[in-house]
Amino acid sequence: MLILSAADVRELVPMAEAIRLMGVAFAELSAGRAQSPLRTPLPDAERGAVSLYMPAAVPALGGLGLKVVSVYPTNAARGLPTILALVTLLDAETGQPLAILDGTFLTALRTGAVSGKATELLAREDARTLLCIGAGAQAFTQVWATCTARPGIERILIASRTRERAERLVARLRDELPELGARAEVADDLRAATAAADVICAATSAATPVFDDADVRPGTHINAVGAYTHAMQEVPAATVARARVVVDSVEAALAEAGDLVAPLAAGLVTREQLSTELGHVVSGERPGRTGSEQITLFKSVGNAVQDIAVSRFAVERAEQTGRGQRVEL
Asked: Distance between CA 131 and CA 110 in Å, rounded?
């Protein structure tokens, strides 16, 4: 069996390829040709943590497997990642275990990549300014993927609750992706940054909205990837109400996303307004952006088809290049 580290995954899966894979995976999911049951959470109330168990099958990509991801907010104080994950990939023909992959970087990669796909499909072609709200585990790949999808972005603004974290993200971008890092800066004035943004990526664990609806100008595209429970909300309900909303999975989003559940419960939106999936837009079954002044919102709670699609590609590339370690079970 093959074992792939985080470094292996990063080397084997270019961001542009990960974005392409997201299109395939979600088109298959929306068409009913892929399977991804709602994830099973095992909460740890004592630590304010949760572990999520996420199986999926994507026959079109030969993908079958399971992801386990744990979110432990107290890990930061221990110098450990808040999000930790592992992916087990099986042979779709025989069910035999094929590979184990470090899922921590893979989670960030695929979460960024799906925002990249949404940006490709929904953001204006002339987008020039990106605002990333949040500077944690997911923020780096949100910036990377969005700028891969819209290479014309000239200015990258980073906002965080603490300036130190925003500065660390800017420094990481300059170190690992120098071309993007040269365009990155800390946003000290969030209201001004929101008003200037053509694309907003929200990747936080906030319980209340992280920007004001009044500051979002017409034509803005928003990727919201942080809120995955009813108790979490990054996007103002008023913004959801006036946006063209696209979700990764309707079933999962309505079961988990506070960003959508709150305005739905308040009667600000209807279920029909929340019924378009990214896969519908990829396939052309439903439209994405319909006008230059339209606000578009992609809401993602995460789906195991993403992990299995990227894992399958990584394993195929590893077999071709000899990357990774092999062990006998």
From this structure: 19
